[in-house]
Amino acid sequence: MHLTSLSALFTTALLAFASLSEAVLPGTWPPMDQPPPIKPEWVKLVDKKKLPKAPIQSAQAADCSKAVEFCIWSCNTCLRNASDVSTCPNDKDWGFSFDDGPSTFTPALLDFLKSTNTKVTFAVVGSRVFQNPEILQRIKEEGHEIVVHTWSHPALTTISTEQIIAEIKWTELAIQTAIGLTPKYMRPPRGDMDDRVRSIATQLGYKILMWDRDTFDWKSADDPNYQPSWIYDNFTQWVTDSKGHISLEHDLYEIGATNAPYAVSIVRKAGYTIKPVSVCTGTAAYKENVQLVASGPVPADEQIWGMACWDETLLVTRQMNYQTPNHV
Ligand SMILES: *[C@@H]1O[C@H](CO)[C@@H](O)[C@H](O)[C@H]1NC(C)=O
Ligand SMILES: *[C@@H]1O[C@H](CO)[C@@H](O)[C@H](O)[C@H]1NC(C)=O
Ligand SMILES: [Zn+2]
């Protein structure tokens, strides 16, 4: 291990220590990972008469008989052009998105992104913003984009309109309280949405952020057979078409967060420019006037040490992965 990673490790350890003493978001907030209370003043923001009458599902994609009529993504990956963004429109633009944090794995990922001058998008869960406001502050200060990803991460087609509004607005309020910004994009948990969900989000001022390249890294949380090499192999294959893309990974899970640098390295080497999604789509990230920018060049010293180090580790990791079957 060379000096750069040692110092990154040291910084991470310091941050972890500091966060023990740092406060959660001030004020009174709903419990972690549970449906938050409905607020009448927020319910009024949505005109129920305008909502498409998509039936509330008993479970995600339980009833797909009206999948085409109501464009139910979980049934048929249906997207609506007017509200949904799932790719970077220009060739050789890449939007990385990391979901479900901020978590204890996020600071080390931020260290890597900072040292390589890489700008990405984080879709954050409100109750984890409450828990880790100082990490959200860092995400903002280091020029990444922040997207609303609900308070308790439910499948939105399965809950009431009032409850969807509460999931979005509590998260919006937590982000505003932590960093003073109001995102213009929201990402539905598990991509689960239909025209009712779209109309609610749109009436609350949001565009919907989806993706067109999925690593399925979340499976690593409870699948012991999940292979990190799948992430590298997926990216290696995806970059070959040179088209614009938005990828989905998770900074809540160790495998997703710790393998992200390899993915960034693969995409950069293929000649892509990595951009926050609002930058690659040429839209506003926030209601407030904040202009985000694309990633810049990797600093010279990182090119020699940092990136080379990641590539070297990638090589070793891959060899280990590839050897495993022969030794079973
Ligand atoms: C999306 O909308 C744009 C602008 O209205 C249009 O040019 C494009 O063809 C639409 N794409 C699809 C897939 O419907
Ligand atoms: C991409 O990842 C999936 C798991 O999410 C895996 O099954 C598949 O083999 C990977 N593709 C490549 C080309 O490695
Ligand atoms: Zn999620």
UniProtKB/TrEMBL annotation:
Alphabetically ordered keywords of this record: Hydrolase, Metal-binding, Signal
GO cellular component terms given for this protein: membrane
Residue ranges constituting the NodB homology domain according to the UniProt record: 92-275
Signal peptide boundaries: 1-23
InterPro entries on file: Glyco_hydro/deAcase_b/a-brl, NODB_dom, Polysacc_deacetylase_ArnD
Biological process annotations from GO: carbohydrate metabolic process; fungal-type cell wall biogenesis
GO MF entry, a single one: chitin deacetylase activity
Protein name: 5409_t:CDS:1
Species assigned in the record: Paraglomus brasilianum
